[in-house]
Design goal:
One of its GO terms (molecular function) is hydrolase activity. InterPro entries: ACMSD, Amidohydro-rel, Metal_Hydrolase. Keywords: Hydrolase, Lyase. The chain is an alpha/beta fold. It has one domain: Metal-dependent hydrolases (TIM Barrel), CATH 3.20.20.140. The chain has twelve helices and ten strands. Strand 3, helix 4 and strand 4 form a beta-alpha-beta unit. Helix 3 packs parallel to helix 4 and helix 4 runs parallel beside helix 5.
Length: about 300
């Protein structure tokens, strides 16, 4: 077997205590599929998939399904747990810290703790909390602090503000729209220009943003200028989780800055066979620099050189 080289920037950690906490919140079970996770299971998947390092993050629903101190305490517990996994196996894992996004002051405190004491590689943010999207002024202090730290942000979707449609689980379509809404919010609000040192990764190759780029380019710019809209859209990094199919990759690669495309799997929410199918399609696609996408772009990003 070849030495693994891939860096997976979209992999999830599901500690047993978090899984049980979520399942005890009486959430919509159709939209809340919480797989089991262990470090050994993750390493087994990584080894067979040629993944050298996975940057772990907590997936939806996150901690903001509750308020105040409970959300803050769960975020801290999750971050300390992730940091412990990284400390135990530092050559195989990094992690994105999760924040209690409902409360700006608590979020700022967790940023400081995660970066200064827990060696976070970045943060995972939801595009919205209770319908307030990430580009709104109320969230600006958090973006400003992340910008000051030149932080890497994984923008990971969740359910839309009004919930999922009956019979259509949120991950099938709503998650993609949530990511697109989050990206548009960051652009139209001017946040991408006010905070130029933010490095934002859009999950699942930006949802369907690459496909609609020409449709919205003139409107995502605060200047309502099409060229400026394309400039803003190409500021984003994209991961390939659940997106590197033969039908999707031509659109993704036509849209993305080639230095900003990176491997993602969505393991374990995406089962191993699905992850492998998307990785195999990525390997078979001729329109990319595979070494850059597999590891080079991520190495530059997380070293601060990108």
């Amino acid at each position: 077997m070849h030495q693994p080289t891939r860096i997976d920037v979209h992999a999830h950690i599901v500690p047993d205590f978090y899984r049980e906490w979520c399942l005890n919140k009486d959430l919509d079970t159709e939209n809340l599929k919480m797989p089991s996770w262990s470090k050994d299971k993750a390493l087994g998947f990584m080894d067979q998939a040629g993944i050298k390092t996975s940057i772990l993050s907590v997936s939806a629903p996150g901690v903001d399904i509750v308020d105040g101190i409970e959300a803050t305490e769960m975020a801290r517990r999750l971050n300390e747990n992730s940091a412990r996994v990284v400390t135990e196996t530092p050559d195989r894992f990094g992690y994105f810290a999760i924040l209690p996004q409902k409360d700006v002051d608590r979020a700022l405190a967790e940023i400081a703790f995660a970066f200064d004491h827990l060696n976070a590689a970045g943060v995972v943010l939801r595009p919205h909390v209770e319908g307030i999207y990430i580009g709104e002024d109320s969230f600006a202090p958090v973006l400003a602090e992340l910008n000051r730290r030149r932080a890497v942000v994984l923008l990971h979707p969740s359910e839309l503000p009004n919930g999922a449609a009956p019979g259509i689980p949120a991950f099938m379509a709503d998650f993609l729209l949530d990511t697109v809404r989050g990206a548009i919010s960051l652009m139209r609000s001017g946040a991408m220009d006010r905070f130029p040192d933010l490095r934002v990764i859009l999950s699942h190759a930006g949802g369907f943003l690459p496909f609609i780029a020409s449709r919205i380019a003139g409107r995502v710019s605060p200047l309502e200028d099409e060229e400026d809209g394309y400039r803003l859209m190409r500021r984003f990094y994209l991961d390939t989780s659940l997106a590197s199919s033969p039908t999707s990759l031509p659109s993704i690669t036509a849209f993305a800055d080639p230095d900003k495309l990176m491997v993602g799997t969505d393991f374990p929410f995406a089962p191993e066979r699905r992850c492998n199918a998307f990785l195999n399609a990525l390997a078979a696609f001729d329109g990319i620099d595979h070494e850059a996408v597999y590891h080079g772009n991520a190495e530059l990003l997380f070293s601060g050189r990108s």
